[in-house]
Amino acid sequence: MSEQISKQKDTILEPSSFCQIGVVVKNIDETINYYKEAFGFGPFEVRQADYPDATYYGEIAGYRGKRAFFYLGPIQIELIELVDGKTIHETFLKEKGEGIHHIGFTVNNLKKSMENAEKVGLKITQSFTRPSGSGFAYLDTDKTGGIVFELIQKPIKET
């Protein structure tokens, strides 16, 4: 059984591809200021998130929000603030308050990784895929261990 589970994990994500910690916050600007002043973290890259075709438990339920990114060593920290729409982040904030929401892993083929996750009984709680195939998908891995895993396929950089 453990050999089968190991093979399944390898087909969904590679443990060594861990790249991100996502933190849900009420207010990105206040959090950035606190992190800068108290700890000297930064620089921060702030982005507007607008995903009109994002799914929420398989249904299209777009949302808008703010994101801020910075690095602690090799790991990217993503601060997540919801502006409007239905997201798993909103549910997390209502149920648990601010805090660590997910850990992210880069994948080479988001669609295939999502299919492999579903084959082993994991549900896609929220996702967004760009026309290029890049995007993200959150898995319902928090049922055991309490943490959501995010699959991230980064956009291909043009050279």
Secondary-structure map:
Elements: H1 2-12, E1 18-24, H2 28-39, E2 45-51, E3 55-56, E4 59-60, E5 63-72, E6 75-85, H3 88-96, E7 99-106, H4 110-119, E8 124-129, E9 135-139, E10 148-153
Parallel strand pairs: 1-6, 7-10
Antiparallel strand pairs: 1-7, 2-5, 3-4, 3-8, 5-6, 8-9, 9-10
Helix pairs in contact: 1-4
Which spans of ≥5 residues are poorly predicted at pLDDT below 50?
Answer: 1-9
CATH homologous superfamily title: 2,3-Dihydroxybiphenyl 1,2-Dioxygenase, domain 1
Gyration radius from CA atoms, angstroms: 16 Å
Number of strands: 10
Quaternary:
single chain
Fold and architecture overview:
A hairpin with an 8-residue loop joins strand 9 (135-139) and strand 10 (148-153). The protein has a single domain (18-153), classed as 2,3-Dihydroxybiphenyl 1,2-Dioxygenase, domain 1. The chain has helices spanning 2-12, 28-39, 88-96, 110-119, and strands at residues 18-24, 45-51, 55-56, 59-60, 63-72, 75-85, 99-106, 124-129, 135-139, 148-153. With 159 residues, it is an alpha+beta fold. 26% of the residues are buried. It has a 10-stranded mixed sheet with strand order 2-5-6-1-7-10-9-8-3-4, sandwiched between helices. It is globular and about 45 Å long.
